Amino acid sequence: MEKLKNYIYGEWIEGNGNGIPLYNAVNGEQVAVSDTEGLDFEQALDYGRTVGYKNLSSMTFYDRGEMLKKVALYLLERKKKYYELSYKTGATHVDSWVDIEGGFGTFFTYSGLAKRMLPNTPFWVDGDTQKISANGTFLGTHILTPSEGVSIQINAYNFPVWGMLEKLSTSLLAGVSSIVKPSPFGSYLTNAVFQDMIESGLLPEGAVQLVCGEPGNILDYVQDGDSVLFTGSSTTGRKLKSLPSIAGNAVRFNMEADSLNCSILGLDAKPGTPEFDLFIKEVRNEMTTKAGQKCTAIRRIIVPENLIGDVQNALSKALDQTKIGNPLSRETRMGSLVGKQQYEEVVRKINLLKAETELIYDGKHELVDADYENGAFMSPKLFLNDKPFEKNISHDVEAFGPVSTLMPYKEAEEAAALAKRGKGSLVGSIVSYDNNFVAETSWKMASQHGRIFVLNRDSAKESTGHGSPLPTLMHGGPGRAGGGEEMGGLNGLHFFLQKTAIQGSPDILTAITKIYQQGAEKKYSDKHPFQKYFEEVEVGDALETAGRTVTDADIVNFSNVSWDHFYAHTDATSLTGTIFDKTVAHGYFILSAAAGLFVSGKKGPVIANYGLENCSFFKPVYAGDTITVYLTAKEKINRGVKGRNIPSGVVKWLVEVVNQRDEIVCVATILTLVAKQSPFIDLNLKNIHKALNSLMESTQPGWGKMSPQQMIEHLEHAVLVSLGEPEADKCFTPEEQLEKWQDSLYNHRKMPKDFPAPFLAEDEKLLELRHKNLEAAKQSFMDNLKRFIIYYKENPQAEHMNFVFGKLNKEMWELMHRKHFTHHFEQFNLI
User: Where in the numbering of this chain does the Aldehyde dehydrogenase domain appear (predicted)?
Assistant: First the structure.
């Protein structure tokens, strides 16, 4: 039987022991063997701390985010084989989708967060700058940097893919090297996904390692700077947390443990209401999804005492309709437990529950295309705890399978009290349409819950469900649930980052943080900052404007245009007892006037105003005052752009408005969307003619078989097609892919060198020379390019068909030609 290989210190290594046999949970056949015997864990940790740390920490947050996206796309293309392995763990197609594509989705989410909200630097400035001296020459702020250690991630068996990827999403984005230790059961699926991550070549050396089997003594080698993330039983978690190597070395420890999550049915949610039906459906789903093997599953069903019978009957019927069996069968709605060992453990916990509470539903024992002897199947089981404040077994014992306990309550106070008897849960849910009941219950139970999920008819359609942790929200819980906090959007990165206070002068803080600090030196130049591309803008680039004297007419006119007739701007007789001496200019007029002073009217790389932050007005401006503006590039934020948007970044500009006494009257931060420099040649006749001057008959292409003249005539043909001469009669790209291809014209990715033009194979005439020599071809090409420019000035709405990109308008044809010309000019080393 094949052994699963481990991936440590950059190599795939097989253990040298007997290992642990891994079985198909559905039919009992052996699938693989996991074995870690003989691995040098000390070397693995050292490799992560050195090679992994160096490579990951030197990347920017933005680049790590881009890396996550590329890895997720790579895995998504190979998902079919993961599903085939997932069925062997007992998971249905829906179970597998949550695990596999839910894991990829976490990578996508964190990639998006990084590209929208994180800097293009290896560190992250956290919070505002603090002025800690009277004159502002001494400032303080905080930066976050990757911990100089390795993260050991111990995952449970229930989510072999998501469990790995949700932890890696934050550690990799934070820049911390990780060692993944999945549960042996289902680790053959983790191993397959991990192999593809490595084969993609998208992760830097040392970023991730994989230990597929028993952890051995790996935790003996952790040290200060390392971290351990554990998902599993609270008993095991507490043992690990107290290990001398962890407790004695200040090793960061995050635990996400089992928890007796509850769902509360509101007093208002009687049979016949949408909420009653939603409650039954939600409980049924949480008992049967992944065969109840979810750390977020509903274990305690808290119901008004007068509705116990109604809930029991409705839930029993719903569970009866849930067919159990082979996950590959279309009829199956619930698969098996992950293995016989887990089955025996769940049976042991069921017997403990039976000692104090009554088993009121044991399910149908029919299986679809499977049998109990070979597979680890279990029917859903529902218990009743009739005295939940006296019988504590339901609040102490978790059977990690399709098992839950029904219990009554009288009023909201009791419902919240029962919820908290779980001594710390990952999630608790309330199903009710009574806002007062929900409000009272939720805040009272919140101290013992990591997440509270409220469901009613208004949110049901778009609700993600009781049991679904989301990347943008925290996953974890207090007490029994481990006290951990995973994901939670960007907050999830803080576990892996070191926070450091930075103090110094404005110039020093600007140099360190790459964010301009007030009082630092400004860089003035003749070129207007708004005429610079994103790459050209430097933090500290500044502009001092001319002055503008505010008049009474300005104030009156702005009142009329804006309809802002607030008395301080319009009524001099009403100013007694106010802070104003006379009618004052509107704050938004000052901001607008400032914009009028600092903008550049000439078209340039600045695309649009993107937003306004932290606008404050410090002193009134009266008619007769003269304002001057200092505009300074404060911060640059790289930005991922999709679809038909110009590749761009966001520049934050500090706007300081002063009066004639050099007093600051207004400070604001404006955001502009600034285009990035295109790597493609402009459709400028002089530049193109200059590039073609170096093209000779003897010039050899860097790739492909075209001669210089064939290349020029090929480009000329593309120009003529864009004029409709001739009109292309066919697009070779399938309709469903056309939008994606057209979107690609807008990005800055170059055309692939090996792209086979589909029309060339069919129409060999395109390669037949039409001009007598190269010089004649060049001249004809330039003439037609000039015609193209004039044509679209005269016919800006014209559209013509392209063989690859479909029907294109003026903007798209220009983008296509720029890419196409650059592609072939580089082919012949002309640019």
Answer: 12-499
Cβ atoms of 500 and 602 within 8 Å: the answer is no
Q: What is the mean pLDDT of each run of 10 residues along the chain (831 residues)?
A: 90 91 93 92 95 95 95 96 95 94 95 89 91 90 95 94 96 97 93 96 97 90 94 88 90 91 97 97 96 95 97 96 94 94 95 96 91 94 96 95 97 96 95 96 94 95 92 92 90 94 95 93 94 95 96 95 93 89 94 94 90 93 96 90 86 96 96 94 93 93 91 94 89 90 92 71 60 95 96 94 92 95 94 86
Catalytic annotation on 295? yes
| Span between the terminal Cα atoms of the chain, in Å | 57
Q: How many CB atoms lie within 10 A of CB 580?
A: 15
C-alpha 606/C-alpha 613 separation (Å) is 18
Report whether 648 contacts 609 (CB < 8 A): no
CB 62 within 8 A of CB 120: yes
In the numeric block, which tokens belong to residue 252?
């960061």
- Residue 404: beta bridge partners? 382
- What are the tokens at 511? 């140099």
Rounded to whole angstroms, how far apart are CA atoms 387 and 397? 16
Q: Mapping DSSP to helix (H, G, I), strand (E, B) and coil, where does residue 795 land?
A: coil
Long-range Cβ contact pairs of 347-356 (< 8 A, separation 24 or more):
349/397, 349/398, 349/399, 349/400, 349/403, 350/381, 350/399, 350/403, 352/393, 352/397, 353/383, 353/393, 353/394, 353/397, 353/399, 353/403, 353/405, 354/383, 355/393, 356/385, 356/391, 356/392, 356/393, 356/394
Of residues 464, 469, 415, the one with CA closest to residue 442: 415
Q: Are 766 and 759 in contact (CB under 8 A)?
A: yes
Show Cβ contacts of residue 660 under 8 Å, excluding neighbours closer than 6 positions. Answer: 547, 625, 626
Alpha helices in 289-366 (DSSP H): 308-320, 340-354
Annotated active-site residue in 14, 101, 214, 256:
256
Give the H/E segment covering residue 112: helix 93-117
256 labelled catalytic: yes
| Cβ atoms 589, 566 nearer than 8 A | no
One-letter amino acid for residue 36 of the chain:
T
Q: How far apart are CA 794 and CA 743, in angstroms?
A: 25
Which of 383, 402, 404 is CA-nearest to residue 338?
402
- 3 state SS of 225: coil
* Three-state SS at 629: strand
Q: Tokens in use for 335?
A: 């698969």
- Alpha carbons 138 and 125: distance in angstroms, whole number: 17
CA distance 484 to 257: 8
Task: Out of 262, 295, 666, 731, pick the active-site residue.
Answer: 295
**Across the chain, how many H-helices and E-strands are there?**
25, 33
DSSP characters for 515-531? S--TTSPPEE-SS-GGG
| Close Cβ partners of 390 (under 8 Å, ≥ 6 residues apart) | none
pTM value is 0.86
